[in-house]
Amino acid sequence: MRLTFLAVHLSSVAAVLATGLYPQIPSVASFSSSSGDPFLLASDVRILVDSKEASVGSPSLLDFAQVFREDLISVASFATILPVGVSSKNTASYLFPTIYLTIDTKKQYTLFNGKPTEDGYDLTITHNSITITASAPIGAWWGTRTLLQQVALAVASGSRQITFPIGQLSDSPGWEVRGFMLDVGRHWFDTEFLSDLCIYASFFKINEFHLHASDNLWNPAWLYGDGNEGWKKLYAAFRFQPADGSPIAGLVPRLNESWTQSDFRAMQTTCAQHGITLIPEIDTPGHSLVISQWKPELMENGTPDHLNLSYPDTIPTIKSIWDEFLPWFSSSEVSIGADEYDASLANDYINFVNEMSSYVKQKSGKSVRIWGTYEPSDTLSVSTDITIQHWDFPDDDIPNQLMAAGYQVINSEQDFLYLDGKTSEDNQFPQELDQDLIWGGAPGGKGWAPNVFSASDASNNTSIDNPNLRGSIMPLWNDWGNNATTRLEIYYQLARSLAVFGEKAWSGSEARPLALTRDQFDASYPILNAAAPGQNLNRVVPARNNVVYDLDIAVNGEVTPIESVGPPYTMTFSVQPSSHSPSTGTLFSGIDSILHVANLTFEATGQLYALGYILPQNKWTTVAIHATRDYTYAIIDGDESTKHYWTTLMDLWGDEIVIGNMSFAAPSQTFGGDGFSGAIKDVSIVLGT
Q1: Torsion over CA of 56, 61, 64 and 66, rounded to 10 degrees?
Q2: How many independent structural domains does the chain possess?
Q3: Which residue windows are coiled coil (predicted)?
């Protein structure tokens, strides 16, 4: 299945570099080739872990090796590989091809600023072995990602054998923080989808997933209008579900849109097993409408989405929220948000941020991050123990000034890195990272990297070795809420963006001779996107001559093994609703979408999108659904002159209503159900439109 998909891209496979390696994402720091027969990867390969280091760390070296084994089976299309073994290198038999993982704590790897990192690794390739050596298990994990990408590119090249040139590879990232953020406060996502995003992002050596887990839609008329109580109904959410009987249970009225502790911890474990740390964010004292709806007495008068920090119960309530959830989090840092608060209350704000930083540290040992927010005060300042996540000029302090003053900074500058679900006001943000800007947007045309904060003013940028520049996080916001996008549409926005961000956040734009060119990235990305193991966010399915299935008769309630089909596809069927139940029930369902009889309504991510077409009863109607990643439309009874599009209405901050097209995966798993009465026949799904 995966090989069939990869074959589409064979004509664009990047040429092998002079080193003998394929250009991968992110690029590696260095590789020195040697003469000799290459290492031949075959299904008899053994994956061995150094017995002295196998249990080191959590996840351990052995944990990472076991995930690597499953990934290698997937990417190389092997039927199986022997289970991971534990062995001393001195006694390991290399009569068969061997990949050996080991830890050498004497190894030293550094970031561009000279600070030590555990993310570095070496690959030593001989004729019959590949040894991955790192100073910690996480470094070995990133080494396995390098091997997997080389395997994927070799498979896609059409070579009959998967080989690696003899030599020595050494690699480490330029920056400590290489993350992405998803606004899960204004759009609901289940932990299964978020776990898949972790797995996918890990393939491109991204190491943090920032979850913006509380927020509200923003409609000024509803929030701030005189005598207006619309704020009570405006969508606001908090995603961590309190325990039964918790004193803060009222904070989460939508229990079906929140994560239980067990679900969150399972997701956190999955992400950790793929090298990614979850960074949870609970945003206060701004963006706090969900708290005001629960306890109105805490809100700032006339500003329901701001909390009144001088009210006696406000800060104790915020602390009680953190008390409940800090034990959930395995990360060494959390974000308290703290952005876009009233500048006239600067001292209250600064005191709050510093108090919360000290409180979180005392309760859990964790450090705190905040979004950059310029608060004018001549007497107080935010503690330099707090990391500042820069996002905008001039709404927060100038990054260079912050770093010069001793603050640690993470670059999330919106001009380069912001995305917004489906659309943004005045098209301020692109649907995916602007490739022209990312590859050539810095002064001098060298492209963006975490040390670049401005495309037009080099004085706002810093050197790659600034000791206070921690790295970068790429955010995707969901300003328009649940109905604007499906979860897969969010993946479509992130997929390519995460890959190019991974290249820049690991390797930068100017420091390394093997850093990718745009052409090299464009050639390698489709292959690596399709090959990324451990998840199937592309919803690739088996097909013969592009036909997924073609059935004459569909039995009501029949279940197929095809859970969902990703676009592009054409799904065709004929339906005859019975007069007993002409407008109810389900036509088709899958894990990503449901198609209801009533108004030919798609359901996805808990939202309904009606086509507005009423199927006639006791009469056969043929429907052909055509879907791409940008839109979905239906042709009824072969009338090609009329295309019926599924759309959504988005309220852009109360300023205007915008119509957006919807993309749906095909609901391919179950035929009929939920009260449908009638008949379905001639059901087919063909890949392509």
Answers
A1: -110
A2: 3
A3: none
